[in-house]
Amino acid sequence: MNLCNAMNNAMDIALETDPNTVIFGEDVAFGAGKLDNGGTDVTMVAWGTQVHVLREVARLAQEKLNVSCELIDLQTLMPWDIETVAESVCKTGRLLVAHEAPHTSGFGAEIAATVQRECFLNLEAPIERVCGHDTPFPHVFEPFYNPDKWRCLEAVKRLVNF
């Protein structure tokens, strides 16, 4: 039994045994990423609020750079959809991962390592990670900490100009 099935079974048991069980979330299949929009030049991967940021980056990249970006919303991280990401990266040859965690030890490092292993011969440029900074940040400065569309757009430029 894989992790997805185990988690689904655990939720089913919880619902059967306790009529007051509340599960809050979206209609998400564990381990299945969602292709937000198709593209041919750069694969962009995110989850949570960064999906909205990269959606805007894809629009800007098309308008300003004539670069077509494929956006994948991972939806779940354990497990994450390696197959969808690898298939996209093999098609585009480039990967940008954006997340709000610090650069060091963030989940983007796991994605980058896996893609490097699975898609090495298809990569046209080094994998770009746009993340939070490796330093404590006060909450009031969060807008300067989190990856924004401009930092991500600069990463797209680096990928296509490598």
UniProtKB/TrEMBL annotation:
<feature type="domain" description="Transketolase C-terminal">
    <location>
        <begin position="31"/>
        <end position="150"/>
    </location>
</feature>
<dbReference type="InterPro" id="IPR033248">
    <property type="entry name" value="Transketolase_C"/>
</dbReference>
<keyword id="KW-0560">Oxidoreductase</keyword>
<dbReference type="Pfam" id="PF02780">
    <property type="entry name" value="Transketolase_C"/>
</dbReference>
<protein>
    <submittedName>
        <fullName>2-oxoisovalerate dehydrogenase subunit beta, mitochondrial-like</fullName>
    </submittedName>
</protein>
<dbReference type="InterPro" id="IPR009014">
    <property type="entry name" value="Transketo_C/PFOR_II"/>
</dbReference>
